[in-house]
Amino acid sequence: MMLPEAKLYIDGKLRRAAGDKTYDNIGPWTGEVVGKAADASAEDIDEAIAAARRAFDTTDWSHQHQQRFELVKKFCGIMQANREKLVQIARLEAGSAIGAAFRAQIDGALNGAKDLLECHAKVSWEKDLGVKNEYGFDTKRIVTQEAVGVVGAITPWNVPLYVNVGKVVAALLAGCTVVLKPAPDTPLMGAIMGEFAHEAGLPPGVFNVITSGHAAMAGEMLTRDPRVDLISFTGSTAVGKLIMQNGAPSLKRVFLELGGKSAYLVLDDCPNFPMVVASSMVVFHAGQGCAYPTRLLVPRSRYQEAVKVLEMAYAGFASKWGKFEEPSCIMGPLISKRQLDRVMGYIEIGKQEGARLLAGGKVATDKGAGFFMEPTCFVDVDNKMRIAQEEIFGPVLVVIPYEDDEDAIRIANDSIYGLGGAVWGSTPRALAVAKRIKAGALSVNGGMSITGDLPFGGYKQSGMGREWGVEGIEEFLETKAIGIRVS
Ligand code: NAD
Aldehyde dehydrogenase domain spans which residues (predicted)? Predict the structure, then answer.
């Protein structure tokens, strides 16, 4: 099965890259080419930035809130109507299983777009702060919010539609113009948004998409270019740091959504302990999720019970993953050979560090030539180990015993990251623990803490700023105070 070619979308035109240059889009399920993508040249990228700058500076896009809202709504409606096409892209290009498409891969993104449209009405574009007498005369004061300008949106491959929507829809609703640069591994999920924008009739230059086979070139150009006012980046912490550095000379706004190593903390009074422990398996989309709670913290008093539950749960899951046509399947391959090698490297590290492999740990060769590895669980893990401290971004759970609630909170917070987390236990106690975890999104007893109308983002090295929700639109706004002398 082949996907259509991913084209550039620059200044209102869908087109191929300069010199018709393309690169291969490799499918994770087979390791084979599933499509071609435009490989943007430096000139193409420059043109996209110039178009976005022109559209921001010379049109009324940023001022016409209602007209813009209607166009973005139409754009989101077209996206919604193309759900099936998006599911196919997520499966073939991002390696999504069908069951994962029903959640964060596709439906989470489409629902999130609807949530953002609703949040637009809650943005306060102008606030009256009344008259104040200062230095002997009266001043009427207003505070306005206005679009920052040109946004460079740089996105990863794991849940590409979700991240693209979180940035693009929010930035457009704020009145910014956008250059989207999807990850090299998932070009079509970005390019298709250009097609939808074209169909919706967004004014030329307001939204542009550049795909590139080179990991860093397009992103670095966006980050260094003084015509770009804000970089909204989702990806690894290492590249996030580079973005800050490269954006510093032009002091552009940088908004960063980075890695995580979140805790799944089960308290000793947790109802349905076996079911809750079994649900901690890191299998959804092969564990390639930034806010995925990949460290299971269980009370030492119930540790052996938890290990037994996990042993059975992993054995039961062995026949349920890696099925391309199965609607209930939630775990497929890893995105690439590079990622598979990286995750397998951590399996070796875990063994050397003295953790015990309870399940998995091997490349799965019985699923074909794609990038499959077994759902994996390490037990007897100490939080100091690299497998407990570093983001693995694969189907790997590490299990760590703790002594009491204070110890559990200490371990949960003993991380350079602070993105997500989950706490299970009797509600008031679990909520009190959740409030003490230094992370941006906490689920208590399975509640959804990540939806399109809630702010999402990280503490510490998991990033800065918030995406989604009203806060996610306001991230793309500047605040201006105006004083009008009235006496
Ligand atoms: P990555 O950091 O390698 O790449 C992310 C994007 O940055 C890609 O588009 C890539 O081409 C681009 N890029 C690479 N080098 C660049 C540079 N020097 N300047 C500018 N752009 C550059 O990450 P990845 O491997 O694509 O994605 C996995 C990572 O993303 C994981 O660490 C994961 O935790 C993180 N992630 C975070 C969130 C979140 O919301 N916090 C969501 C999804 C993924």
Answer: 20-482
